[in-house]
Amino acid sequence: MKLKTLTQFLIEQQRLENALPADVRLLIEVVARACKTIGHHVGKGALGNVLGNLESSNVQGEVQKKLDVLSNEILLEANEWGGNLAAMASEEMDSVYPIPHAYPRGGYLLLFDPLDGSSNIDVNVSIGTIFSVLRAPTDSAGRDITEADFLQPGTAQVAAGYAVYGPQTVLVLTVGTGTFGFTLDRETGSWMLTHENIQIPADTSEFAINASNLRHWAPPVRRYIDECLAGKAGERERNFNMRWIASMVADVHRILCRGGIFLYPWDAREPERPGKLRLMYEANPMAFLVEQAGGAATNGLGRILEIQPGQLHERVSVILGSRNEVERVTRYHHEVDTQA
Ligand code: AHG
Ligand code: MN
Ligand code: MN
Fold first, then answer.
1. Beta 206-208 vs 241-242: how paired, if at all?
2. Total structural domains in the chain?
3. Fewer CB within 10 Å, N- or C-terminus of the chain?
4. Is the shortest distance between the CB of 57 and ligand 1 below 6 Å?
């Protein structure tokens, strides 16, 4: 069977009416190339001197790993000169990164989590890169891009995707016409379309949550997980299985491949914080991919993609995956709300 390359796929998408402007196609190719480079460094591990921590921490106060910073630099360098972007923003940078004046400026904004799953880097477990593409507001032409220009809801995303660096290196992408997966052919260096129009089954018996936080969960999450754990003898009348990789990319990838529900909900450890994961470069791109694959993504109350961000590094509660399960957890949240 002859597989399509990412380039072929993108050119075909470009030919579809209104599906993909040429400059978005080019910028996706550049992001994909940067992911290939990151994957190459990840694969070298201790031999490439890329493991371990740096002395620094990022804007969210998290210790930075060498690979967090290296991946951020690779993405910036690859994307700054192509002429398709007006600015970039990243988990690893306090504020926005405008395209240097030496290069032409384009009409798009790129956001990324350069290395997702940092706690897994040094132990050789799957990690990844997550990205999201927005349009620069039309009124931003001729002036400096600010953080406010990035504060668009996830529904405004033009494209989103992730690369997972695991036993295989896989790029999963949406431009709003479905969700597609490409496996890196390590011999030829090409991304090949191996996962056509991914569909998440509406039902599942597999959940993913960090159960060590159980005592801090809100009642609707507690109720949902308790019912899963009760198995055949309980309310759900069937047994559930659990997986938690602690790399969102890898957990979401499993869900795209075989279904499941992923939760990183609000919890009472830091009650003023809406969740752990970041809205603009973790939750939004994943929510877009999951919805395009027939799944659902909410913060317990409403669609993640409809949240109006107030800050670049805003956090959010995340519940995503198989539609019927996500709807159930969301319903449990609403039931508590109406009783209150
Ligand atoms: P990052 O490495 O970009 O900071 O993200 C890690 C995130 C996410 O990938 C994962 O689902 C979650 O943190 C794991 O958190 P716990 O260690 O609390 O399980
Ligand atoms: Mn992350
Ligand atoms: Mn990260």
1. parallel
2. 2
3. N
4. no
Give residue-wise pLDDT tens across range 119-160. 999 999 999 999 999 999 999 988 999 999 999 999 999 999
Give me the residues near ligand 2 (ion), CB cutoff below 5 Å.
113, 116
Domain of residue 34, CATH code: 3.30.540.10
Q: How far is the CA of 119 from the centre of ligand 3 (A)?
A: 9
Ranges in the chain, pLDDT < 50: none
Given 195, 217, 238, which residue is the final one in a domain?
195
* pLDDT tens digits, one per residue of 151-182: 999 999 999 999 999 999 999 999 999 999 99
Q: Is 125 a pocket residue for ligand 1 (Cβ < 6 Å)?
A: no
Distance 114 CA to ligand 3 centre (A): 6
Do 167 and 41 share a structural domain?
A: yes
Q: What is the 3-state secondary structure (H, E, C) of 46-77?
A: HHHCCCCEEEEECCCCCEEEHHHHHHHHHHHH
Is residue 58 lining ligand 1, measured as CB closer than 6 Å?
Answer: no
Ligand 1 contact, 248 CB (< 6 A): yes
